[in-house]
């Protein structure tokens, strides 16, 4: 299923790994991304093989590395998360989620999980990224979203976003459009995420 919105970056987000207080213990995490490039201030951010300049991952077993260098999230899902956070009392009903809130490096439009296939490439003006795998939510996601069922909601909705590997390093900026270059198109992010979540429940 394709979307009608243009294929564009709304925000580029990074974070240094900082301690989070979760259930009485301090855990290092880079999930608290903040916008460093916006359409109003389209700073060009370096894209290297292991991720964006100024970005860190704390737990390299689940984030980072060559296949998970950059994490992208569809802005089309933001309305869903605003609603469920408001229902959970984690934010006001009319409060907008800041870009990067889902822990993503790229907040983008025009590409949902059902139409994002492993091996597809996202071609920007100065770099090329390839879709590699879905995000698997962990307990840190509950903490950053402010309610206990956030991980479960991501698993049930399939609104997981996708990791990207860096095919051609360069720079990237908010406001840029991108071209989707299809790969073999054998398995979509939606299908792979569903299979991984089902397997986790069976284990």
Write a structural description:
With 203 residues, this protein is α+β, with helices and mostly antiparallel strands. It contains four helices and 13 strands. The chain has helices at 78-87, 139-145, 150-157, 189-202, and strands at residues 8-14, 18-22, 25-29, 34-37, 45-48, 51-52, 70-74, 106-109, 121-123, 128-134, 162-168, 170-172, 179-181. An eight-stranded mixed beta sheet has the order 4-1-8-7-11-10-9-13. The longest helix has 14 residues, at 189-202. The relative contact order is 0.23. The model has no long low-confidence stretch (mean pLDDT 92).
Strand and helix map with partners:
Layout: E1 8-14, E2 18-22, E3 25-29, E4 34-37, E5 45-48, E6 51-52, E7 70-74, H1 78-87, E8 106-109, E9 121-123, E10 128-134, H2 139-145, H3 150-157, E11 162-168, E12 170-172, E13 179-181, H4 189-202
Parallel strand pairs: 7-8
Antiparallel strand pairs: 1-4, 1-8, 2-3, 5-6, 5-12, 7-11, 9-10, 9-13, 10-11
